[in-house]
Amino acid sequence: MSGHSKWAGIKHKKAIVDAKRGQAFTKVARELSVAAREGGPDPASNFRLRLAMQKAREVNMPADNIERAVQRGAGGKEGAQLEEIRYEGYGPHGVAVMVDVLSDNRNRTVAAIRNLFTRSGGSLGETNSVGWMFTQQGVIRVSAGASDPDELALRLLEIVDVGSDGDISVDDDAVVVTVDPGNFEAARTAIEDAGLSVETGEVTMNPSTSVPLDAKQAVAVLCLLDALEEDDDVQQVYANAEIPDDVLESVG
Q: Which family, according to the similarity comment (predicted)?
């Protein structure tokens, strides 16, 4: 399995293990506010806001909460106070890590992120120290349900034009579709119009290569990733770790 699809599966399984609804609501609300601030409150003309609203629905955020977060951003309140920053560095065992944050205090946030990297045995790096290993891509995870995943993958090849840089691969009981960010919405719409179940869909940063880890190494890396995701300012964490399934299943 290609590295980016492997990481998509890891993120999905971690989301199940780490599900903390209150914190998820906070992070999604921040993204909604900033998206509305940057591109306006109308999702029809604001791609970033459409993605944020979809994420909000995936974590079962109530419609009233979504609307309030959008209006805060459109009104220049919470959204105006938040700064978007990306941090890059190396975690344990040479794993490349990127961290996207929304912060109202840059000094506080960078100190917290640097401390987490250092405590893990890693180090915070300069801009693009690891970013060159990642590519922005749209990733859609489609549930196979009662169907055979390999047969579903063949069907998706007929439904979705993944382009020259895209990919369709089987991951356990689902199929992961990877497309260029510009084709993300068209791909998702085509999948849903075919009556298939989309588990998750996002535009994310996927690694071009991955670092295979044994069980002991994987636990050390997961500790760093979990600690980063626990920080209230952190929106997204990306890594090029290849973590054994049994380790993911044992974490909880």
A: Belongs to the TACO1 family.
What is the spatial distance between Cα 66 and Cα 63, in angstroms, rounded to a whole number?
Answer: 5
What does the pLDDT read at residue 152?
93
Q: Residue 96 has which token pair?
A: 């490349």
CA distances from 186 to 23, 58, 83, 84, 110 (A): 30, 19, 30, 27, 37
Q: In three state form, how does the secondary structure of 171-193 look?
A: ECCEEEEEECHHHHHHHHHHHHH
Separation of alpha carbons 204 and 234, rounded Å: 15
Task: Write down the mean pLDDT value for the chain.
Answer: 86
Residues 29-43 pLDDT 10s: 999 999 999 999 999
Q: What is the pLDDT of residues 128-184, one digit of tens each?
A: 999 999 999 999 999 888 889 999 999 999 999 888 788 898 887 889 999 999 899
Give CA 99 to chain center in angstroms.
10
Output the six-digit token pair for 133.
């290993």
Interior angle at CA 129, CA 83 and CA 179, nearest 5: 75
Structural element, H or E, at residue 28: helix 21-39
Q: Look up residue 4 and give its amino acid.
A: H
Mind listing the domains of the chain with CATH numbers?
3-81 (1.10.10.200), 83-131+209-242 (3.30.70.980), 133-207 (3.30.70.980)
| pLDDT for residue 22 | 61
